[in-house]
C-alpha cells in the first residue's frame, strides 16, 4: 500500500509547485469563502449572488498562463466549496454555474485551458455542503462544526447526501478526461472516514481514474503503518510548513503538500491588503522542498473572473526566479544534512543546491562537506565558484571537515524583487 502511494506520487513529488484556486459565488460579497457561515447568511439571503454571478472576464487561459509563468506544474480548482455552489454542469443539482448568468460549465473551460499548457489538473470538492437539504447543517445557519439539535434531527437523510456527493464525484471523474488530483475538504468530529462511505468512494475513484492522487481529508490515518484505503496519498498541512517534514509511524517519509494563501484569505477578499512577497513565496517553496514537500499556493479570483493584480505580480516575479533556479526545485528533495546557518539545502541525485537566504560579506560555510564538494557553480548564471578549505582549519575545531564557497558580490535571493 505504502509503495503504491510512493510510486503513484512520483510525478507529484517532482512537480513541487502548484496553484490552488478558490473561486465561487463568495467572490461577490468579497469577504472570503466562509462568509455564509461567519455571517450566518441564509440560503435565501445568499441567493442574489447566484442570480448575479456573471464572470464576464473569466478567461482560464489567462489563469493557466499565470500558473505556467510562475513555474507551477499543476492546478486545483474549487469545483464546489462549502456553500455547495457547483462551477460544473452537474446533472444532480440546479445549484450550478450553468443556471447563473455565467451560463456555462466553468470547470470544463478550466480543464481545457490548463491542460493545453501542460499543467496537471486537480479538483477540490467540498464534503461539507451548506446548501444541500440533506446535509446536516442545512438551513440552520449554524457553523457545521458546532453541535446543534437540527443536525441530529436531519441526520437520517444523510444517505441521500452521500448518494449526491458520490454521484458528483463520479461526474467530475468521468466528464473531463484524465484528472490528476482529487482534493476533498474536509472531515471533522464524527464526520469522517466511513461516515462519507469513504472506502466505497475511493474504490469508485480508483476504478474511474487509476492514477489519480487523493488528499488525506476524507479521514483515516495517513501516518499509520497500515493506513485505511481512504487515508490519502499525501498529507495536506494548511497555512504551515511542517517543521520537520512529514513521516509516518514507521519513520518513512510521506508525500505532502502545504497549501498556503497568497494573502490572508482563500476566496477573494476585497479588503485584504496582506499579499505576501515574491521573496517570501520563493523561500517557502524552498523550505517545502528542503523537507520533501510541495507548495500549493492559492489565488482567489474576483467576481468578474480575474486573478487580482497583486497576485499576478507575485506569480510573475516568482516565475522569473524559477526560470533561472527551477533546477533546484523540480525533482529535488531534502538533503541528508543539518540545516545550514545561512539558508537551506535541496538536493537532486549527487547535486546539492545551497539556497543562501542570509549572508554577511564573507564566503559561505559548508559544514562537513570538505571531501564531498567536487565543484561549485552559481545556478542563476552557471559561473564557477571558488571552493576553499579554511587556512589552518585544524585550529578551529568547529570548522574541521568543512569548506567555504566564495560568492561574488552580494549574490543571494535579495535580488528577487519584492
Ligand atoms: C478548509 C476550508 O474550510 C477553507 O475554506 C479552505 O478551502 C481550506 C483550503 O480548507 O479549511 C480547513 C480545513 C482543515 C483544517 C483547517 C482549515 N484543519 O484540519 O485544520
Automatic annotation (TrEMBL):
Classification lineage: Bacteria, Bacillati, Bacillota, Bacilli, Bacillales
Protein's job: Alpha-L-fucosidase is responsible for hydrolyzing the alpha-1,6-linked fucose joined to the reducing-end N-acetylglucosamine of the carbohydrate moieties of glycoproteins.
Annotated Pfam families: Alpha_L_fucos
SMART domains linked: Alpha_L_fucos
Superkingdom, natural source: Bacteria
Protein name, as recorded: alpha-L-fucosidase
Family: Belongs to the glycosyl hydrolase 29 family.
Site keyed May be important for catalysis: positions: 259
A GO BP annotation: glycoside catabolic process
Keywords noted in UniProt: Glycosidase, Hydrolase, Signal
EC numbers, comma separated: 3.2.1.51
GO CC list: lysosome
A GO molecular function held by the record: alpha-L-fucosidase activity
Enzyme class, broadest EC rank: hydrolase
Limits of the Glycoside hydrolase family 29 N-terminal domain: 10-327
InterPro entries: FUC_metazoa-typ, GH, Glyco_hydro_29, Glyco_hydro_29_N, Glyco_hydro_b
Amino acid at each position: 500500500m505504502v509503495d503504491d502511494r510512493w510510486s503513484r506520487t512520483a510525478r507529484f513529488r517532482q512537480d513541487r509547485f502548484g496553484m490552488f484556486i478558490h473561486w465561487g459565488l463568495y467572490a461577490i460579497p468579497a469577504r472570503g469563502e466562509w462568509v455564509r457561515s461567519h455571517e450566518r447568511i441564509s440560503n435565501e439571503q445568499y441567493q442574489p449572488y447566484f442570480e448575479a454571478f456573471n464572470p464576464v472576464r473569466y478567461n482560464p487561459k489567462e489563469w493557466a498562463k499565470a500558473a505556467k509563468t510562475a513555474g507551477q506544474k499543476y492546478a486545483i480548482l474549487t469545483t464546489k466549496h462549502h456553500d455547495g455552489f457547483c462551477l460544473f454542469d452537474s446533472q444532480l443539482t440546479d445549484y450550478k454555474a450553468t443556471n447563473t448568468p455565467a451560463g456555462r460549465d466553468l470547470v470544463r473551460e478550466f480543464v481545457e485551458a490548463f491542460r493545453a499548457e501542460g499543467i496537471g489538473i486537480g479538483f477540490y470538492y467540498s464534503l461539507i455542503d451548506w446548501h444541500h437539504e440533506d446535509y446536516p447543517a442545512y438551513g440552520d445557519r449554524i457553523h457545521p462544526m458546532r453541535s446543534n439539535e437540527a443536525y441530529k434531527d436531519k441526520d437520517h437523510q444523510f444517505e441521500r447526501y452521500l448518494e449526491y456527493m458520490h454521484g458528483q464525484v463520479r461526474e467530475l471523474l468521468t466528464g473531463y478526461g484524465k484528472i490528476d488530483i482529487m482534493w476533498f475538504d474536509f472531515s471533522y468530529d464524527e464526520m469522517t472516514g466511513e461516515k462519507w462511505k469513504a472506502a466505497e468512494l475511493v474504490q469508485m475513484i480508483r476504478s474511474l481514474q487509476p492514477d489519480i492522487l487523493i488528499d488525506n481529508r476524507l479521514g483515516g490515518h495517513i501516518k499509520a503503518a497500515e493506513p485505511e484505503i481512504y487515508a490519502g496519498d499525501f498529507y495536506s498541512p494548511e497555512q504551515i510548513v511542517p517543521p520537520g517534514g512529514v513521516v509516518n509511524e514507521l519513520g518513512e517519509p510521506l508525500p505532502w503538500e502545504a497549501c498556503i494563501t497568497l494573502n490572508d484569505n482563500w476566496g477573494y477578499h476585497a479588503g485584504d491588503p496582506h499579499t505576501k512577497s515574491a521573496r517570501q513565496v520563493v523561500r517557502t517553496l524552498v523550505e517545502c522542498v528542503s523537507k520533501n514537500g510541495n507548495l500549493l499556493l492559492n489565488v482567489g479570483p474576483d467576481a468578474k473572473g480575474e486573478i487580482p493584480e497583486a497576485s499576478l505580480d507575485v506569480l510573475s516575479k516568482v516565475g522569473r526566479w524559477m526560470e533561472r533556479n527551477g533546477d533546484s526545485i523540480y525533482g529535488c528533495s531534502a538533503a541528508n544534512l543539518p540545516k545550514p546557518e545561512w539558508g537551506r539545502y535541496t538536493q537532486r541525485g549527487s547535486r546539492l543546491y545551497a539556497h543562501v537566504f542570509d549572508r554577511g560579506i564573507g564566503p559561505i560555510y559548508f559544514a562537513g562537506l570538505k571531501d564531498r564538494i567536487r565543484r561549485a557553480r552559481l545556478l542563476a548564471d552557471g559561473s564557477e565558484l571558488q571552493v576553499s578549505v579554511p587556512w589552518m582549519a585544524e585550529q578551529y575545531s568547529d570548522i574541521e571537515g568543512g569548506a567555504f564557497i566564495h560568492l561574488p558580490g552580494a549574490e543571494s535571493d535579495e535580488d528577487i524583487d519584492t
